[in-house]
glutathione peroxidase
Amino acid sequence: CFDDSRCIKSPTDISVSLFLASPEASQEIYRENCSNGEILNSLQHVRPGGGFKPSFTIFEKCDVNGTNTHPVFAYLKDKLPYPDDDPSSLMQDPKFLVWSPINRTDVSWNFEKFLIGPEGEPFKRYSKKFPTIDIEPDIQRLSADPSCRDALQPW
């Protein structure tokens, strides 16, 4: 969830990216119904509310599955074809598969996550069920990896 994302800290302030993906963000049905401009206000005042302001960049809505998949998500899904913590399931109810073509590499639902290392290489993919706060050990692993150390850039 968005609240968990603000709690994640990198021990060395390295630049890592976490993409929270949602097939409903712009697919035809079951989509985020806020406009791009309304999303930040919704987060601040409705859910989670309480003046919440993300400490991370929120991108505009885009297709993450199907014929019009945004190139960033096509690349991420190619490099990390399924979540490490849930390699077998895509969607439990076929009525939610509203894009075409359908592939196992598709983002299955809200808050599927991609962790990107300091060189821009996809590191790990997590299912919607994986708590965002539990990604922190992987960020620490990335920061401790000697092969990444030269690429570490402060924010």
